[in-house]
Amino acid sequence: MNIQNIKIRSAILGQIRAFFQANEYLEVETPILAQELIPESTIEIFETTFSSEFHGERQFYLIPSPEVFMKKLIAKGSGNIYQITKSFRNSEQIGKDHNPEFTMLEWYTMDVNYLDSIKTTEDLFLSLCNKDTPSWFKPPFIKMSINEIFKEYISVDLLKCQTRILIKIEAEKLDLEIENTDTWEDIFNRIFLNFIEPKLPKNRPVILYNYPKQILCLAKELKGTPWRERWELYVNGIELANCYSEETDSEKVKNTLDTEYIKKISTSRVIPDIDSNYNLIFNSDFPECSGVALGIDRLVMLLTGSSSIEGVILFPFSDTLIRDCHSTSSETE
3-141+204-332, what's its fold? Predict the structure, then answer.
């Protein structure tokens, strides 16, 4: 624990709030306990039990992001909103970039798309810069499409790899062993993590945009293409933010939620309840909008020059594991 870094963190949070207030975003505070979640097959969640003498017992879940509530606020006419909140993800590695409990900044801007949100994010970064800020943090961001970077780094044209068989062939050329159970998305992710992500530029922030539509999420499909209106931001090689043009078609939202829920049944330890009527908030009054989720702990780690998020959060989970390990060791001596 580094108290000086915690002071810097506090100042950064103040700067973030000042930026959004100056740009007329409404700050909101939604629950971290939810009775229903948006199912995401790649994310494991924490489950807990509400127990009451008068209401019996019910299962609740710690949110992996505030999205489920923030979109309900948008449907109510909130306009531009932002939130800094605790979020939780289970069954992930613990270390330099990960803590099961983490702080997320999430904001939604009305009547814009994912490309417009790049400018907002650049402006946010500029508001956090001072004379000592390293150049690799400063805008303008480098912007490359996923297909451009695949072609440049490994000479793979994703336009020609739209089936599992074709992307499997490219993966095997790279000496990756592919299992029969691996999906198109699994193969893509293995290629990306092994051959793309480690080579990303570190001299400036990098936006990777237009992700393959095979990677199911609540981002709009880019018309006439095999891509989704989505980008991710990397700073100094670290994944920092994720952005969509949010899907607003009720039927497409329902299909995505149903598909992800079925996947979770077969792959996840905890299967959250879902709101079967959630898609109905996406009616004709729901505005076109873009949402960005950004990891605060990683942001502060980068701005303080820390080697791990453990240096910029109070009482990291790893401390608990080390203490428990020492306790167990003492008991067995």
Answer: BirA Bifunctional Protein; domain 2 (3.30.930)
